[in-house]
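Input chain follows. Return structure tokens only.
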Amino acid sequence: MNVEPVAESTSELKAPNSKLPKQGIAEGVVNSIPESWSIEQVAQWLSSIHLEKHIEKFRENEINGSLLMSDGLDDILLKELIPPLKYRIIFNNERKKLRSRQQQKSTISTANTNDIRVTLKSTNTSKMVKDRSLS
């Protein structure tokens, strides 16, 4: 029986690359709240919209989700981060999509909260009327 030493057989085993495919990254990042993104999540988002060349500038300038979504990241600053006009246009279009998604989520969340408040007020008022009639 021919048995190879354990050290030799395990030394050839390599762990698979742990990076997620771009589509998986994009889904995970986009489904979270952009304002709370870390610098790395912003980098993942840039990669998902095919702006990998500009990730290093965003990291150097510590652009996190809060800064990404703020109005402070205007055209002048963006020109320093992403010099080619074509890519700035892509960036702005994608950022608008993020803002739009976030607004839709906020609107839905607010609508659901308002529905709950109306229901609770209605219930409390009914209870108060019943309590007064018992007195």
